Amino acid sequence: MNTDAKSIIENGKAILGIEFGSTRIKAVLIDPENRPIAQGSHTWENQLVDGLWTYSIEAIWYGLQDCYADLRRNVKEQYDIEIETLAAIGVSAMMHGYMAFNKQQEILVPFRTWRNTNTAKAAAELSDLFVFNIPLRWSISHLYQAILDNEEHVKDIDYLTTLAGYIHWLITGERVLGIGDASGMLPIDPQTKNYSAAMIEKFDNLVADRGYQWKLADILPRVLPAGKNAGFLTPEGAKRLDVSGHLKAGIPVCPPEGDAGTGMVATNAVKPRTGNVSAGTSSFSMIVLEKDLSRPYEVIDIVTTPDGNPVAMVHCNNCTSDLNAWVNLFKEYQELMGMPVDMNQVYEKLYNHALKGAADCGGLLSYNYFSGEPVTGMAEGRPMFVRSANDKFTLANFMRANLYAAVGVLKIGNDILFNDEHIKVDKITGHGGLFKTKGVGQRILAAALNSPISVMETAGEGGPWGMAILGSYLVNNTANLSLPEFLDEKVFAGNQGTEIAPTPEDVAGFNAYIKKYNRCLPIEEAAVKYN
């Protein structure tokens, strides 16, 4: 037993980070040195209800309570004690989406998650109005689409927030949001570190003839940067979190954040000229900018770090799903041959063998589109492998083509940043399932982005750990450090991770692959049309 950790929990010095992901709710308890000492989780799934992706209010609270109960069990097993109080709490969740409430705090329509794509008309009109790329999944797109669709509930809105903002509100009573998550509701003005006043005015003018009793600024959460107090756990909030009744009220709670912000914190990528790539079922890159882009781009979202710096985000709907499907095919073959299967070994062998393939994959192409891919203009997806009779169809080239496909769309978006906007980056950190096999995903991504890629051991701790660190920043930042300084000095303390730089041959090969990939996109379009 770790007696230090036991006394830290007993003395109320531990910090709790909770993150609502798409498939899991996870809780991490850390010590004052920001090391994980206990964890809990709950598995959940979204539902498609009346054509929209949602999670019910009941599922949200049951999931939170079950996750916390699992954390309590973990603490009891390891240290034989109960959690009575904490130094701080932080809640994060998948960003964007739409949760609208009336004056009685009743939700007006089921929670609309980031996955919904029914907001195309609203997003396009707002992008034109604001001269700023407004993605389909942002809260303002959902709100305006509801207005365009003449939805009855809009007139009754008293509060509009995200999932993290909703949880925070009900456990603290505070209608606030961390600036990173807020930047996925409505664009942030980098000067004021608040919602853009000009855009709020434009929106209010746009909907003035509708006669609503509310103005946009009145229904949005107050914006707070990392390190600011965002309220305290109320007695009711303590009961909502811990149904056993052990947890006491009065604990400081830091500003709630989005999962992109916690990913930046967990990879120490919050200062300008740093970035991170998350590569799992979907993928996204976050590059912290030194200056504004010259113009809006439909495939690049501008959000912020948890301390308010602008970030260029390229979000791709597809990443490892198709790759995993092919690997499972090889697993089936092994089973058919009566060979024992160790999936870690299967991945390791196939991924490493891919590095022996030609740098341009011998002409082979893969489209990993399980779902639509906005970056390449695909409303729907069809996973597809393409080759001609003259291409070099070997296992190494085949696996390499599938690995390239996993980050190909990410490359297309980032090529705009690096080649057209000449953005400079000193360090990009990778995290997620693609990097589990040591060195391979890293090398592929380095070739795609023509940039050195680092992977840290701690990146596997993920979003809830990043959220707990933001809680730590609230209560343990006695030296009044900036968030980048706090991460450098107190959390990562010289841990830069393992870096792999791109080779000229790999970069040239990936460029040749992506040129052919772009040229052959009409094949994917035809597959969607006819299959």
TrEMBL record:
Pfam families (UniProt xref): FGGY_C (PF02782), FGGY_N (PF00370)
GO biological process: carbohydrate metabolic process
Similarity-based family: Belongs to the FGGY kinase family.
InterPro entries: ATPase_NBD (IPR043129), FGGY_C (IPR018485), FGGY_Carb_Kinase (IPR050406), FGGY_N (IPR018484)
Name of the protein described by the UniProt record: FGGY-family carbohydrate kinase
Superkingdom as given in the UniProt entry: Bacteria
Domain Carbohydrate kinase FGGY C-terminal residue range list: 276-473
Organism: Marseilla massiliensis
Domain named Carbohydrate kinase FGGY N-terminal: residues: 15-260
UniProt-listed SUPFAM superfamilies: Actin-like ATPase domain (SSF53067)
Keywords of the record: Kinase, Transferase
CDD domains: ASKHA_NBD_FGGY_BaXK-like
